[in-house]
């Protein structure tokens, strides 16, 4: 055999040995990885606490990667804070009311659907017509949950937070006045008390707006009752023309405190909600 042949045979043997060694190493390496994986799975199955820690760390890492990619910090539970419903999920009557209010007051139908559903639920519990509650919201705030009058009436129903702070204690405090559902619940309770004291809806609305001792309420009750009638017609399936209202104006003081007798209440200065 020539020297060139010996060299070629040596190179061939060397390459064969390297390939065989690489196969054995990788084969054993994969076996080790497989054993480690099986051991890890068995450990996690036997120790749920370790599995929870691992899942938590993995989710934290994934959220960090997502935040880095989007430039935003993800909050998967943010949807739970939203006051909104799909109007298609409401009963036909409530959906019709929600769509009509949405178009008239130029507010998204989803949050309005949540308010309509809540008004119907509260109305049933308090023996109040839900469309009356919606009419009060329409006249008082135009469905602006952050509305505030110069004398402290706040939220959808323009409840005097200072006077009715005790009613907000069950909801975490006075700042709950700006939670739409909470404001609706507290406002409905105030309206119920006013109607019970006054003896009728129209007289109760006069109490609610703070005009119990005045000769007139500047047309407040008439506005609410007119909107109430329109909403009742919408709920009954009738076609009611849309007339975009002006910015709600409230020229009377907010509702008086329920514990204050009418003869002791003092009318406040006129106010305007913008």
Describe the protein.
The protein has 274 residues and is mainly alpha-helical. 58% of the residues lie in helices and 1% in strands. The chain has nine helices and two strands, in the order H-H-H-H-H-E-E-H-H-H-H. A two-stranded antiparallel ribbon has the order 1-2. A hairpin with a 4-residue loop joins strand 1 and strand 2. The longest helix has 44 residues. The C terminus is likely disordered.
Output mean pLDDT.
Answer: 80
Q: Work out the helix count.
A: 9
Stretches where pLDDT falls below 50 for ≥5 residues? 257-274
The geometry reads as: elongated
Intertermini distance: 106 Å
Structural class: mainly alpha
N to C succession of SSEs: HHHHHEEHHHH
Order of strands side by side in the largest beta sheet? Answer: 1-2
Extended strand count? 2
| Radius of gyration over all CA atoms, rounded | 34 Å
In terms of DSSP E residues, the strand content is under 5%
The helix fraction, in percent, is: 55-70%
Largest sheet: 2 strands, antiparallel
